[in-house]
Amino acid sequence: FLMERKTRAKTNRKEVMLAKLRKSCSCTPKKLKNFVMDFFPVLRWLPKYHCKEYIWGDVMSGLVIGIILVPQAIAYSLLAGLKPIYSLYTSFFANIIYFLMGTSRHVSVGIFSLISLMVGQVVDRELLLAGFDLNDDAPPALGDGSLQNDSQINTTAFNLTIAGMNAECGKECYAIGIATALTFVAGVYQVLMGIFRLGFVSMYLSESVLDGFATGASLTILTAQVKYLIGIKIPRSQGHGMLAITWINIFRNISQANLCDVITSAICIVVLVTAKELGDRYKHKLKFPLPTELVVIVVATLVSHYGKLNEVYASSVSGAIPTGFIPPEVPHFNLMLRVAVDALPLAIVSFVFTVSLSEMCAKKYAYTIRANQEMFAVGFCNIIPSFFHSFATSAALAKTLVKTSTGCQTQVSGVISAMVVLLVLLFLAPLFYSLQKCVLACIIIVSLRGALRKFQDVPARYHVNKVDTLVWVVTMSASALISTEIGLLVGIVFSMLCIIVRTQRPRTALLGQIQDTSFYEDDLEYENLSSIPKVKIFRFEAPLYYANRNYFLKSLYRLTNLDPNLEAARRKKYEKKEKQHLKKGDHTTANGLGIGETTLQLVPKQIDFQVLVVDCSSVSFLDTTGVNTLKEILKDYKDLNISVLLACCNPSVIDSLKRGGYFGKDFGSMQEMLFYSIHNAVQFAKEQK
Predict the structure, then answer these.
(1) 548 and 404 inside one domain
(2) Is 272 found in the same domain as 252?
(3) Where is the STAS domain (predicted)?
């Protein structure tokens, strides 16, 4: 039987589009109010804020995150190749803007190691092209706190004409100019992606790609910090193969290691790792995480200051960190043109990490987020701060987990964290002058524990899915050994290729009947299946399209042990020989048989079926090549007096077959060619026999 399809009312697409356009372009007070409240979600939830219920958790989590943010911001400035003050600016503005525009209640947006690394690589490249020395171990400035007063070695004034910057600009000035231009362009990309609703781009970054990318980047981050750990002065490597080049330079200069930095690093790593392990073990007993990083920084700064480690042992220190805010400045347009390509992967990675963490928190705490609004939020977290000497931001997993574990209820906690950073910016920043860079490197390396532990998960990942493991390995290797941007691109392309290959060479099987049932399964996978006399049931577990057409035919011919084209050719050849013998008057065939016995030879012994049932339950769609392939096998098997029946086709496949003329012009034979279950097709075949 054939089920009747519903008739769909024809719609005028032009009228529908015009109606949507009129609706979207109309402006009413109600619509304007909804637009503003959607664009600034804080206007919806803040008036409903339950102060007594939420305030304690928000204040506590905000203080804890703020305390963690300060040392991390100062440390991650090493990754970005910028001064610590810019990292503090970034952390401050990102929290305020996401408070106004974000839809997640728990995600922590701010400085992130992976994003800082990507920014730092672009900054280093442009500094090198501009002729600056990448050595960042020059003596720190003892200026009056103004960011314009730099050391003579680091920022000898250059009259730069590069990228249209004709004013005198030193190394630090040019570096933050590159970073802000990069950040602004990345933010513009994210806003444009939100306007055109391109959030689906994140779907092409699978979990394996993201994990491999993060792990590979973590290896790069770790490598970049080793020189600070042991206190050697080597140039910051640039370009492809940075990981290998850096390690070669490290081993070449290992004899120059600073003993003071080595001892300090060893002590800090032991303290930080021990505290982290104890915190993980007893986290159910602790109301909030131990502020180990802050304690280490305070103690290390005091020891360095009173022990005069910089003067006596030549240990590299952070230097002067000024207080207050620098007047805002518009990012240079000409610099934007130089970094426009670099900003695209930065924008995508920043958005994907933010949305994935937001969705994780929303699922855990039973609320919803708007991915498109998250795109706008993280976009403006980049655009607006770029005017205030900040660089790119993203949601950070570690801080988000801390935030949720310390009782966070809303993004009010983000405002509290911003106030803690502001306190440091206005009053406490100069106190970190004597802080050793090796201590900051220790904080960065210990923060990579989670990403580096992914190596322990490889056996379990391999056991679950070998292809995903291969994607992870390829992405991780490319990100670490080539570059982070190339690694991300390689991961995406390789992941897509894996999907294509899996559809090009899918599983195929001949099915047998489960005894005393109307169900059929793979004859090679299950025991005690019954074969149907004179019937072959073939399953193809993928869409049938141009890329896997040949594999479909080869698999069908191999499993049924019959290639209809070869069989037809063999028959024609045999008939031709028979005619030649008859013309000669010989009443025996080429095989020495009588003419009456030749009919036995025309039907080959290997054809042990008369009906072929194709199980289309796994065929999600057909393209033109797929329809033509089914028409081809229908014709070829018909020439051998073998019927072809289709079973379990979805409506999309049926429509494709109809449009392709598979059932003829009037669909008259459709009831005898198409069945809604394999069992119906088998029963029909038995009745026809």
Answers:
(1) no
(2) yes
(3) 525-685
